[in-house]
Structures are given as structure tokens and as C-alpha cells.
Write a structure and sequence with these properties.
Oligomer: single chain
CATH class: Alpha Beta
CATH architecture: Alpha-Beta Complex
Strand content: 25-35%
Strand order of the largest sheet: 2-9-8-4-5-7
Number of strands: 9
Number of helices: 2
Structural class: mainly beta
Distance between the termini: 32 Å
């Protein structure tokens, strides 16, 4: 599987526009080469460098297998099934590390699933989406960007 963004390359800085210091909108993403049998996707974004442990910024679930990406600001402009992030808001919460805490790495992870739909309650958390998605995971790819304040 491949996961790319026209906004930033793997291992490079995430532009300010996609952070809490900018417009706080989701970046454009595109993917390809799903494993055979893929029936849906889950997209996750988290920060393992957060002071209190991994911070979950975004989870989109029940993405149709026919979809190959999201445009710039898709989390805000389109109807997606999105989970509650660790900011306690539904949808995308961009990189927002504590000032002076150094570089934080943001892992955008795409999971290919063998099911069309996750069995989650209404308004699940990012953690709940990931836990349920792992039960039917066929493949996973990661795109890492960094940001610091």
C-alpha cells in the first residue's frame, strides 16, 4: 500500500495551514495498492510524542474501498464518518504540540479492512475506531510528518 500527500513528503514538516496555528484543516491525502479483498479503509492520525502518551488527532472510518484519497480540507467540507479526537471534538484536530516541547511526529495511518463497516457505536472515539479496525485489518501504511512550536 502507498499513502502520500501533496502537502508534505514522508518525514518532512507539515505545513502550518494544517495545524492549530494555521487553518486547522485536514491535509490532502491519496492512496493506492490496496491488498486484495479490501472492502473499506480507516484513516488515523496520532502523535506518539505527546507528553502524556499518544494523542489521537483524527479517525475516519467506513471509507469505501473505491475511494483513493481525500482533498484538502475534506474533514471540514465533506460528509465523513469521523470519530471524537483527544481534543474532545468530532473530526480533525491538527498538530498542536506544547510550545517548546520540540519536534512531534504525526503518523497518518491508513488501514485496509476486510469489512465494509465497523461495529462501533454512534460518536466513537479514535481509540475505539482503531481497536475495532484492527480486528479486520488486511494491510497498513504510514505517512509521517512533523511539526513543532
Amino acid at each position: 500500500m502507498k499513502l502520500l500527500s501533496e502537502a508534505f513528503a514522508d518525514g518532512s514538516a507539515i505545513p502550518r495551514r494544517f495545524t492549530c496555528d494555521g487553518d486547522n484543516v485536514s491535509p490532502p491525502l491519496e492512496w493506492s495498492d490496496a491488498p486484495q479483498g479490501t472492502r473499506s479503509y480507516v484513516l488515523l492520525c496520532d502523535d506518539p510524542d505527546a507528553p502524556g502518551g499518544t494523542w489521537h488527532h483524527w479517525a475516519v472510518y467506513d471509507i469505501p474501498a473505491t475511494q483513493t484519497g481525500f482533498s484538502d480540507s475534506a474533514a471540514q467540507k465533506t460528509k465523513l464518518k469521523q470519530a471524537a479526537n483527544d481534543f474532545r471534538k468530532m473530526g480533525y484536530g491538527g498538530p498542536c504540540p506544547p510550545p517548546g516541547h520540540g519536534i512531534h511526529h504525526y503518523h497518518f495511518r491508513l488501514l485496509a479492512l476486510s469489512t465494509d463497516r465497523l461495529r462501533v457505536h454512534e460518536n466513537p472515539s479514535c481509540r475505539e475506531v482503531e481497536r475495532e479496525a484492527r480486528k479486520s485489518r488486511l494491510g497498513e501504511v504510514v505517512l509521517v510528518g512533523w511539526y513543532q512550536r
